[in-house]
Structure of DUF2243 domain-containing protein:
Amino acid sequence: MTPPSERPFPTSPGILLGLGLGGFFDGIVLHQILQWHHMVTSAGYPANTLENLELNTMLDGLFHAATYIITASGLLVLWHQARKPHFWWSSKLLFATMLMGFGLFNLVEGVVDHHVLGLHHVNETVPRDQWIYWDIGFLLWGAAMLLVGFVLLRQGLREPQPGPSV
């Protein structure tokens, strides 16, 4: 039997789940419910014609398909890891890693789509000169989630591990 002190907590499932849930939050809340932007509304395809809206809706769907695959991958890896006898289960550490994944999603998506590629911005319903504030807020939110998740993970890893459940 593996001693409790040698049972690692697998971080990758939580990070994958957080990445997927971050993508779902972005797509469902910002794209669909609030309709602040779509995938390429700032890249020459504003949703002001039926043709552009159809293109953006299709690209939003592909984005959702990708987030579904990432989330399903996280569940698959979690299931695989949880079946191992040396698995260290911790709700706190799973939450911490999911928070890190959500934060990573915001940072990567925010930098790449909003700033590098200019595909869209967080809130395109406000005047154009205010878009940057929403984009920066999105990055700060992501950085805060990543930092809080990292701190929770470090704290949780320092706590004594419970003995194996029988």
